[in-house]
C-alpha cells in the first residue's frame, strides 16, 4: 500500500498489514506509522484486518496499528478460525467503546 495523495479522498481505509493481499508481504513499521499519520491528518477510519495473526511461527508478531494509537480511528478485526475450528467462524473486533456500541446497534 502506498501512503500518498490517493488516500486524501477516502474516509475509510481497509488494510491487512500483517499479510497484505495479494502479495503476502508484511507492511513495514515505517509504512504503518505513515498510515497512522495520514489517518490523523485526514480523519480517516482505519479497519485493520489481521486475519493471519495466529500464523506467525517465527519470532514476535509485528505490532498492530491499533496498538499505536489511543484515538478512535482504528478498528482491529480478526478471526479465530485457524486456531480453534474453521467451522465455528468466530471473529472479534477491538475498537473504541463508541464504535463498539454502534456496531452492536447495526448487528441488531
What is shown here, in short?
The chain has helices spanning 29-42, 97-107; strands at 12-15, 45-49, 74-79, 91-94.
SSE diagram, text form:
Blueprint: E1 12-15, H1 29-42, E2 45-49, E3 74-79, E4 91-94, H2 97-107
Parallel strand pairs: 1-2, 2-3
Antiparallel strand pairs: 3-4
The biggest beta sheet reads: 4 strands, mixed
Given as residue ranges, the uncertain stretches (5+ residues, pLDDT < 50) are none
- Mean model confidence by pLDDT: 82
Fraction of helical residues:
10-25%
Global Rg: 14 Å
- Report the structural category: alpha/beta
Straight-line N-to-C gap: 34 Å
Please tally the β strands and state the result.
4
Strand order of the largest sheet: 1-2-3-4
Helix tally equals 2
Q: Which band does the percent of strand residues land in?
A: 15-25%
Run of helices and strands: EHEEEH
Q: Which word captures the global form?
A: globular
Overview of this protein structure:
- It is a single chain.
- This protein has 108 residues and is an alpha/beta fold.
- It is 23% helix and 18% strand.
- The chain contains two helices and four strands, in the order βαβββα.
- The chain has a four-stranded mixed β-sheet, with no helix packed on it.
- β1, α1 and β2 form a beta-alpha-beta unit.
- The longest helix has 14 residues.
- It is globular.
- The termini are far apart.
- 13% of the residues are buried.
- The model has no long low-confidence stretch (mean pLDDT 82).
Amino acid at each position: 500500500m502506498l501512503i500518498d495523495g490517493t488516500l486524501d479522498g477516502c474516509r475509510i481505509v481497509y488494510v491487512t498489514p500483517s499479510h497484505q493481499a495479494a502479495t503476502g508481504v508484511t507492511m513495514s513499521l515505517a509504512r504503518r506509522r505513515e498510515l497512522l499519520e495520514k489517518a490523523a491528518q485526514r480523519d480517516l477510519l482505519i479497519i485493520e484486518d489481521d486475519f493471519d495473526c495466529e500464523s506467525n511461527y517465527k519470532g514476535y508478531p509485528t505490532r498492530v496499528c491499533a496498538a499505536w494509537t489511543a484515538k478512535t480511528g482504528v478498528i482491529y478485526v480478526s478471526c479465530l478460525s485457524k486456531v480453534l475450528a474453521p467451522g465455528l467462524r468466530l471473529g472479534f473486533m477491538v475498537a473504541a467503546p463508541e464504535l463498539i456500541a454502534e456496531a452492536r446497534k447495526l448487528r441488531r
